């Protein structure tokens, strides 16, 4: 029986294209993440220039989809999500959306670190160093076992 020929350039099923390495990330989120990478804000660009240097050996991704949400920066090894918040995050329904978004991200095993856009613009290098320090020293290390209960650490 003859094998089918591989598709030629530009041919093939477009429904199978679009990436997304997670079983719970909708293709629309992957496409939106690509668009957001092209239209990053000034604070995001400044922070990305520092985080992309892999300080401390940590690899960060920018505009990374997690489920239906797209996070500003994500370090998969440290399970750390970094969100750069401008003044728009304090207006209208945005605080409630951020709470719901953080809940979903935390339920999927990530820690969320929010940094103000003004802090990034004032000191992108220092902000990146603080983020890498948080990635290197999480408050709780699962390999060490669960944290002590109240009163047990005395």
Structure, described:
The protein is of the alpha+beta class and 154 residues long. The protein has helices at residues 27-38, 42-51, 94-107, 117-122, 124-136, and strands at residues 61-66, 69-75, 80-85, 111-116. The protein has a domain at 41-139: 3-Layer(aba) Sandwich (Endonuclease, Chain A), CATH 3.40.960.10. Strands 1-2-3-4 form a 4-stranded mixed β-sheet, with helices on both faces. The longest helix is centred in the middle third of the chain and has 14 residues, at 94-107.
Mean pLDDT: 77
Structural class: alpha+beta
Instruction: Tell me the total number of β-strands.
Output: 4
Helical run tally? 5
Low-confidence parts: 14-22
The amount of beta strand, in percent, is: 15-25%
Please summarize the sheet with the most strands.
4 strands, mixed
Oligomer: single chain
Give, in spatial order, the strands making up the sheet with the most strands: 1-2-3-4
Question: Would you spell out the secondary-structure blueprint of this structure?
Answer:
Elements: H1 27-38, H2 42-51, E1 61-66, E2 69-75, E3 80-85, H3 94-107, E4 111-116, H4 117-122, H5 124-136
Parallel strand pairs: 3-4
Antiparallel strand pairs: 1-2, 2-3
Helix pairs in contact: 2-5
Task: Compose a concise summary of this entry.
With 154 residues, the chain is of the alpha+beta class.
Which descriptors apply to this entry?
5 helices, alpha+beta, 36% helix, four-stranded mixed β-sheet, Endonuclease, Chain A, 154 residues
